[in-house]
Amino acid sequence: MTGAVLITGANRGIGRAMLDRYAARGPVVGTARSPQPDTPGVRWEPFDATRPEAASSLASCLDGLPLNLLVCNAGIFVDRHEALDDGFEAALWADTFATNVTGVFLTVQALLPNLARGTRPRIAIISSQMGSSQRTGGGSYIYRASKAAVTNLGRNLATDLAPRGIAVGMYHPGWVRTDMGGAGASISVDDSADGLVARFDALSLDTTGCFETWDGQAHPF
After folding, report:
1. Pairing state between β 167-172 and 4-7
2. Which residues, at least 6 apart from 72, have a Cβ–Cβ distance to it below 8 Å?
3. Are 126 and 176 in contact (CB under 8 A)?
4. Cβ distance 117 to 3 under 8 Å?
């Protein structure tokens, strides 16, 4: 059975651009919260990272499909304009961590059997420079904390999964002109997607645990 690529949050932005590139190569599965129109070369599956049962449901739908690459791309950024004195309410923390951290872990956990059946299995986690403990620009505490947490999660997964032959990498996609990045961002969706796909191609057990930028630079943790 031919192994596939699975991308969470693949219906728009960087996720969609990566999906289109992998669809031109071979089998690809995209996930989204809402139903998606038929897309040539793409298998769509429903997935909401905030629902604890969603990952196991996704694994059941895949029915043992081997995965060569899992891209954990689904994420939210809800605290751009919160004020330190009276913002950052608890519900925003809960929602963000449910998507950006817990959802990533549960997805990886549920799909380990699929990755074990893949060829040169890899996990790519889309993080952000805003999660770096060495680059502290202030503000957006919830998003920054969630990306720091998921980068740490990826590092530890890399340690535990290396004996199983599964490589794990974390990636800063760049400041990208998307709904999340805004119109004033510095690079296009296509530039980011091309760079990320190249990074995922290069990911191996020799580089597992890496934190890299979309254009191949080592990123400080």
Report:
1. unpaired
2. 8, 104, 107, 108, 123, 124, 125, 126, 150
3. no
4. yes
Using CB atoms within 10 Å of the CB of residue 172, give its burial: 0 to 12 exposed, 13 to 18 middle, 19+ buried.
Answer: buried
- The string of pLDDT tens digits covering residues 52-106 is 899 999 999 999 999 999 999 999 999 999 999 999 999 999 999 999 999 999 9
pLDDT in tens, 150-209: 999 999 999 999 999 999 999 999 887 776 666 676 789 999 999 999 999 999 999 999
In 10 A of CB 61, how many CB atoms? 14
Q: Point out the residues that are catalytic.
A: 143
Count CA atoms within 13 Å of residue 60 on its CB side. 7
Q: Which pairs with CB-CB distance under 8 Å and at least 24 residues apart come from 20-28?
A: 20/193, 21/193, 21/194, 21/197, 22/197, 26/2, 27/2, 27/3, 28/4
Residue 25 one-letter amino acid: R
Q: Rounded to whole angstroms, how far apart are CA atoms 187 and 3?
A: 31
Distance separating alpha carbons of residues 70 and 121, to the nearest angstrom: 8
pTM of the predicted model over 0.85? yes
Q: Which among 6, 198, 207, 201 is positioned nearest to 104, based on CA atoms?
A: 6
